[in-house]
Design goal:
It is a single chain. The protein has 20 helices and 17 strands. By secondary structure, it is α/β, with parallel strands linked by helices. A hairpin with a 5-residue loop joins strand 16 and strand 17. The longest helix has 19 residues. The two termini are 22 Å apart. Bound molecules: ligand NPW and potassium ion (K). Potassium ion (K) binds next to strand 4 and strand 5. The site of ligand NPW has 29 residues, from helix 1, helix 2 and helix 3. This is Bifunctional NAD(P)H-hydrate repair enzyme. In the C-terminal section; belongs to the NnrD/CARKD family. Belongs to the NnrE/AIBP family.
């Protein structure tokens, strides 16, 4: 599945209009229809199409006398235009609809203007200036007895913080009031205030029960605050064609990470991963990574341990091999064995050991995962680490590690926002991959993976794939091990990272709540079995 930026979506729309296949007005009509269809699909109780009077008991009165009620909030752009269409279509179904517009009707873009006038010909529109004080009083009088609020204030055209008229809907007390009254809030395309490119909130954002978007999901639906503001996201086709293969892929299904029979199966397992461990008392993380590497199908997995930890590790492992690796010279010696084709350094490695081993590992030019301490140990001079990286590397930073390695990029991502579209985690990860010259996997519930060539994948554990229990100690170590194991199996760095991130979430979902990191590798066989791998 492809994720689009607002600019890409506009380009797709413009190409369709230019080709003469469709007009902007038709697209707006389809968008509005898509929203109404999604509402009825999501909440069938709101769908009274085809309801016969016999459906409601006589003593409650016929539906005509007891219409469903909606408030539609329209903004000054085409998102508002969609709102006017939704208002008209709901009214056609017998709903009582009140429409508010924030903005100057004279300045509406042409298609939105047409729909404003179609609605306004027979109905009232309550108009307020864009930057006026909240319409709170007016609005709060309305919700008594309403069933639905439609947010058509801002969509992909949000350019600055959401304030002024209508922003009261983003206030927690108002939202709570609506929720208590059972009022559903539906956002058109994106919750107003959410930047569709970054999933960052500009000012404040409406929290919707459902967001209906068109053609394809936008980045903002899955990144950052997107999942907490969008509610459920439904994507409706409006008859547009995708222009070219998108560069940002949303991995939710196995076929998106190209997992198929033979791709990671055990039958022809091969490869030999070396996982470097920290000292005594610090070996658990590397053991977790090693177990992960083994479970995803590396033929052999060796733990490289310093002398102080040899006894500890020897007593704890089965199916893994143990090799004494004492400092850079020891690693150099170990790597004389060219069958060791994938390395993993970082989990609880310790800064000192990391500074000694990482340069040696990188000089050996094997496929290499650098995680945790292998990244943080170079915080004082990230440039020195970056200069040694090569295109067979995969870096797996979480937010803190990312900021240590790429402080300027992180600062851009975290700066207070005055304007949109905002610099996103996708932008940040791509910039980092370009600078590092290798694959960067930026962890989080919205894991973003980028290659230096611009390919980018978002693997998010949100919505239907939510797995909050994955945020458990040691979970990242297992992920590093998964990647190392897949690299050992011969997958290219980007594919190894994409596949591992996907599997990681699947394993967490397979196990469910109560998960601890040790459980993750043990779910791999069941996940593979379900995929018939
Ligand atoms: N593209 C497609 O394929 C399709 C698009 N469709 C629909 O169109 C929507 C995009 O429409 P859009 O481009 O007109 O943007 P929209 O979100 O309505 O807002 C722009 C207006 O808001 C203003 N403004 C922005 N931020 C503000 C703020 N904080 N506070 C105050 N004002 C602010 C901004 O002002 P400006 O920045 O220009 O000064 C401008 O006037 C899209 O989400 C979808 O619903 C569908 O119909 C079908 C196909
Ligand atoms: K909206």
């Amino acid at each position: 599945m492809e994720l689009l930026t607002a600019a890409q979506m506009r380009a797709i729309e413009q190409a369709a209009i230019k080709s003469g296949d469709v007009t902007g007005l038709e697209l707006m009509e389809r968008a509005g229809q898509g929203v109404v269809d999604a509402i009825f699909e999501e909440w069938p109780v709101l769908d009274r199409r085809g309801a016969s009077p016999s459906r409601s008991p006589g003593y409650l009165g016929p539906d005509e006398e007891d219409p469903l009620r909606a408030v539609v909030l329209c903004g000054p752009g085409n998102n508002g235009g969609d709102g006017f269409v939704v208002a008209r279509l709901l009214q056609k179904q017998g709903w009582a609809v009140e429409v508010f517009l924030c903005g100057d009707p004279e300045k509406l873009p042409p298609d939105a203007r047409v729909n404003y006038e179609r609605w306004g010909a027979k109905n009232e529109v309550r108009v307020s200036a864009v930057d006026s004080a909240p319409l709170a009083d007016d609005f709060l009088r309305v919700p008594k007895g309403i069933d639905l609020v439609v947010d058509g204030v801002f969509g992909t055209g949000l350019t600055r913080p959401f304030a002024g008229a209508f922003s009261m809907l983003a206030n927690a007390p108002v939202r709570d009031l609506l929720r208590d009254r059972g009022v559903k809030v539906v956002s058109i395309d994106a919750p107003s205030g959410l930047c569709a490119d970054s999933g960052r909130i500009l000012g404040q954002a409406i929290v919707a029960d459902m967001t209906v978007t068109f053609h394809s999901k936008k980045l903002g639906h899955v990144l950052g605050d997107g999942p907490v503001t969008c509610g459920a996201v439904r994507t409706k086709s409006i008859g547009l064609e995708t222009l070219e293969d998108g560069q940002i892929v949303h991995t939710t299904e196995a076929d998106e990470v190209k997992l198929s029979k033979g791709s990671v199966g055990h039958k022809y397992s091969h490869g030999h991963a070396l996982i470097l461990s920290g000292g005594a008392g610090k070996t658990g993380a590397a053991r977790l990574a090693a177990r992960g590497a083994l479970r995803v199908g590396a033929g052999l997995v060796t733990l490289g341990v310093p002398p102080s930890a040899q006894m500890e590790v020897a007593s704890q492992i089965t199916a893994l091999m143990l090799q004494r690796v004492d400092g850079a010279d020891g690693l150099s010696e170990t790597l004389e064995d060219t069958r060791l084709n994938a390395l993993c350094l970082g989990p609880a490695l310790g800064f000192e050991r990391a500074r000694a081993l990482v340069p040696m590992a990188l000089a050996a030019r094997r496929a290499t995962v650098l995680d945790a301490d292998a990244l943080s140990a170079f915080a004082e001079d990230p440039g020195a680490l970056i200069a040694q990286l090569h295109d067979e590397c995969v870096l797996t930073p979480h937010g803190g590690e990312f900021a240590r390695l790429f402080p300027d990029i992180a600062a851009q991502m975290n700066e207070q926002l005055a304007n949109g579209p905002a610099f996103s985690k996708v932008d940040a990860t791509r910039a980092a991959a370009k600078r590092a010259g290798c694959v960067v996997l930026f962890k989080g519930p919205d894991t973003v993976i980028a290659a230096p060539n611009g390919r980018c994948v978002v693997n998010s554990a949100v919505y239907e794939r939510a797995a909050p229990w994955l945020a458990t100690a040691g979970s990242g170590d297992v992920l590093a091990g998964f990647i190392a194991g897949l690299l050992a199996r011969g997958l290219a760095p980007m594919q190894a990272a994409e596949t591992a991130a996907w599997l990681h979430v699947e394993c967490a979902r397979q196990f469910g709540p109560g998960l601890i990191a040790e459980d993750l590798p043990e779910q791999v066989p069941e996940v593979f079995r379900k995929l018939n791998i």
